[in-house]
Amino acid sequence: MHIVMVETTVPQGFHHIETLAATGVEVSFVTEDLRRYATQPGFDGHKLAARTVELPATKDVEDLGVQLTGRLGPSPVDGVLCVHDQYVVAATCLARDLDVPHESLRTVRLLRDKAAVRRRLAEAGIGSLRWRLVRSAEEGLVAAAEIGYAVVVKPLRNYASIGVGVAWNAQQLGRHLSAAIGDADEPALVEQYAFGRQVSAELLVQDGHPFVLGFAERLPTPPGITAELGGHFPARFEGMGAARRFVVDLVRALGVKNTALHVELVVTATGPELIEVNARVAGHVVSEQMSLALGRSVTLDLLALATDRPVMPPSEPVSTLALRHFWSSRAGTVQSIDLPEAVPAEVVRCDVIARPGDQVRPLRHNFDRIGYVLTEAFSAEAAIGAAAEVASRVLVELSDEDVVPTVPQERTEHGRHVLLLLDEDGTAERILDAAGASTRHVSVFWCGAPAAGDDLKAHWADRYLGRWACPADGTQAQTALGELHAADPVHAVMNFAPRLVSLAEELRAVLAGDRDREVAVPGEVRRQPPGPGYVVVLVAAGDVLIPWALLEDLGEHVPGDRTVQAPARLPEGERIALTRKAVRAAERADVRTGVVRCHVAREATRTGPVTVLPGIDDHTRALCDGWLTGGIVAAALAAALGTRPSVPRPRHPAAVLRELAGQVGSFRVAETARADELYADPDVSYVDATLAAGTVHRPALSQDALDRGQLPRLAYVVTGDSLDACQRSTARIERGLRFRHTPLDRTHVLIVDRFGATGWTTQHGAPVLPTDRFRVSVITSRPVTGDAEMAEPDLLVRADVFDHGALVALAEAVHATYPVDRIACGTEHLLMPTAHLRARLGVAGQSPRRVRQVRDKAEMKRIAQCAGIPHAPGLVVHEPADAIRLLEAHGAVVVKPRDRSGAQGVTICRDRAALDAWLRQEFMPGAQLAEAFQPGRVCHVDAILHNGVVAWEVSCYGQDALNFSYGASVVSQTIDDDRLRGHARELLDRVVSAWDIQAGVVHLEAFDAGSHLVFCELAGRAGGGGIVPAFRATRGVDLRHAQLVIDAGDDPRRIVGEPVAPHAGWLVRYSPGGRLVAYDDSAVADLAVHREMNSVVGDEVPPSAFRGTGLATYVFAGNTGAQVSGLLELASTGIRCHIEPPDPTVVQPTEGNR
């Protein structure tokens, strides 16, 4: 196969030849001058052509066939390929002369003529922009006056944005026309300026059938720049279906039969409009960009077109490619351009076009660009982000020598200065997108939460000149307006949000120099009209109110669903009368700026009142813009700036707004139709997918939210040839909609656990938290292998809960799926991480400050001292001398870590030698507490608190509470001594008051000093050892379960049951470390009300490192204290345990510090 290629694009234009040659195609490359490509990246690709033929001229030459006679080799030519706009006419003539497939010459010439294209489209009713063809500055001024500023001036047949300019006034228009027309005979195009999302449709047309390969979206450009800064392919965007229909209709209207098309569009607030159409594939490296994104060769598609072979149908994209250009911010001579040494993996190609010695200037059009980067990723966000990162790291070094000085020009205007008031009511971004049609000089006062405006601020900064401010109140707003107006005169204050009507009126008074004027807010500030009826939408232009639209609100046929249609089904006479009635009502309300909606109830159109609603909600705006030309936001801005907007024309005969109700109550959306799916429908002009998949909806509680009204789950606008056609579209769309949700009517509790299922289920396997009221998710470090009858939580995740980073990540993932209402935790060393987690997720419960009061022993001592609670003298040890002085004063000291539990790290120093040994081996400045040793029994008071004391118990350790460190046993028994119980309750009450504990489980340890108890320390969780089952035996409630219930926001009295006996005691057998060789507890196993074995014979048992858990736990209960004492004594002497010491040469594990 033999292909003639006429010229190519830059850069990398020779990749077409490389691709064709790789598939065995013979390529003859025809050019006017091969050397002009020599400095471009990819130039060596031309060597793969079978031949290069240079001719005197190739542009606008219609006899290439004659010039090429005998110069194309022996093989017959099968097709002609051209990818450059300036040479398509010459290439088409060559294909005609060689009798190979081609688009008709008449169509190609039509596509090269911007005015002819617009004339043909206007005849077909495609597009709404007004335009004129002018041959002089005088004609241009007349045309602009008829069209209305702003206008775009375009040379009729130029390319690469050269000579294109936007004129906001007559002076600018004159300059642009002089540049566009100059001395040439060709006229220029003056066209209504359209502002919005700039996209391009990439098509292949074969036998009149358009194959839409996809759309590319351009990066937004700052005012005054007509160059393309980059973009991504493929793109999905609002109005994509309408844009697709637009280009398909365009193909048919222009009579295109066999060519590639690159159609540039701007998607405005009212729909797509044409920028230009080109009879070629997209330039620069876009064809390569498309090929990689689609997983196909666009070059081979062009080959199929050129040889009349079937074009492969459009394929789904496999990735997204982002293109980002670089440019210089000032004029100069290039010294060097340095690309980043390390680039992201997403980079496909990164090329510099400018070379040292080249002169560059600030960006205006495409030829001012000096390089580019092309990136590929699965998602658009990743590809765009990688391209932006590389572009930001390109270093350009310029020299000012030999630079031709530029003539200083006056400040360029981009429209008159407008101050916009925006908030979070959902219309802000669309208002910004629509405002650009009236001015690119926009300052913003953001009146919502500052952080909520960050993305919108970036959106604004890419598109407008002006300032952004976040005044906290009306006074700050007035001050900020004064400063702004002094620096850059403001011509109008505009607002479209109903909530900001009052502030807007205040600022207009300030701008008018009448701060003392009493501001009257017209009408009632509401989001939506009140019920079925008619809505007359007016645009205020000073003393004149322009009727913009008459809509019919059909109300709710299905509860919660709402339909509004345009036009209203009313006789012409009634429409006129209703409109006049609305105008009179708005005049009485003294509406002079912006948009106002006037609502009249259906049954009272003649005699009923008119409700005047200032501002406009986004759904009403979308219905107006979908139905009519012009754009209501742009019209209101133009009116505020002194230009009376044209009366709108129907863009479509009819339009219908549908609002579909969400569910009642709190819920999470599991599945719903996506906005981009609906936008693929050409009848859909607007989608507000309020409740997107993953959204959590909770009923509005604030008065402000209630005033705005509850948003529907989905709102959309369709357009059509009639109201009946629109209703058929809505029925079709809604038959295919998906909506699946999960109710969130249960309180979601996240349990952070290390104990296993016993922490959230009862002894019988039932859930502690009732499933009809609570959703329970558990992150646990304990394997859950219990009884098959045991109730399972809604979500169970096994993880290391002491890995705080992993815990946060898991909790946030759970919260993102089903918002967490409460977090429960009963483990000492997890109290602070879970407190921080509550703060991070905004969940109620114990704060980090509260937890510190029950974790830091130094803080406990401070609180006790302030409250006058007896406690052992002590201090934080920052230097060895601190502990030494305390020892000298009291004879013996106890040193312990400030934040450990279960007696971990506790050491009693009875002399200087013992203290010196501790200082050498254990001392960490500031991390430990030293206090005077307290003689007497150690007691522990355990209690459940919930607006008072629910249940409590006091017990005493029967022997040295540090026995666990020797591998022996620790015992504890409840006390029936009235004196001690009285002292215990007194201390408990004083501690609860001093710590201000309203609800929780506490474990309080104290020393028995005879006449009173001396405070030792306090824990905000259930005690360890056998405390939990012993408390359950005497008080009928599980302390851990009580903590869970309280953390869940419930009342623990609900789970209090019948006690087993009035007295209880427990024994925990600890391990010195080694292999458990034998264990026999038959003497007491059947007598215990609770028996728990943590190891079996043959296990390697680590040495016990803290008092919380041990080798085995026994709890005994009885009617008297003596009965319990006897059982404890039997357990102390009757259990036979043999642990073989470990090999001293092997490092042994320990239980750790948990």
Attribute tags:
single chain; 1154 residues; alpha+beta; Rossmann fold; D-amino Acid Aminotransferase, Chain A, domain 1; Dna Ligase, domain 1; 9 domains; eight-stranded antiparallel beta sheet; 31 helices; 28% helix; elongated; disordered C terminus
Task: Describe this structure as you would to a colleague.
- By secondary structure, the protein is an alpha+beta fold.
- The chain folds into nine domains: 101 residues, Rossmann fold, CATH 3.40.50; 131 residues, ATP-grasp fold, B domain (D-amino Acid Aminotransferase, Chain A, domain 1), CATH 3.30.470.20; 64 residues, Dna Ligase, domain 1, CATH 3.30.1490.20; 78 residues, D-amino Acid Aminotransferase, Chain A, domain 1 (2-Layer Sandwich), CATH 3.30.470; 94 residues, Rossmann fold, CATH 3.40.50; 119 residues, ATP-grasp fold, B domain (D-amino Acid Aminotransferase, Chain A, domain 1); 91 residues; 95 residues, 3-Layer(aba) Sandwich (Rossmann fold); and more.
- It has 31 helices and 53 strands.
- Strand 25 and strand 26 form a beta hairpin.
- The chain is elongated, with a radius of gyration of 40 Å.
- The chain starts with a strand and ends in a 14-residue tail after the last strand.
Radius of gyration, CA atoms, in whole angstroms: 40 Å
Number of helices: 31
Number of domains: 9
Secondary structure: helix percent: 25-40%
CATH architecture of the largest domain: 2-Layer Sandwich
Assess the beta-strand content as a share of residues.
25-35%
Classify the secondary structure makeup into a structural class: alpha+beta
Cα(first) to Cα(last) distance is 77 Å
Q: Largest beta sheet: what is the strand line-up?
A: 13-12-9-10-11-14-18-16
Can you tell me the CATH class of the largest domain? Alpha Beta
Largest sheet: 8 strands, antiparallel
Which assembly state applies to the chains in this document? single chain
Could you tell me the CATH topology label of the largest domain.
D-amino Acid Aminotransferase, Chain A, domain 1
Q: Mean of residue pLDDT?
A: 90
Anisotropy-based shape: elongated
Strands, count: 53
Q: What is the CATH homologous superfamily assignment of the largest domain?
A: ATP-grasp fold, B domain
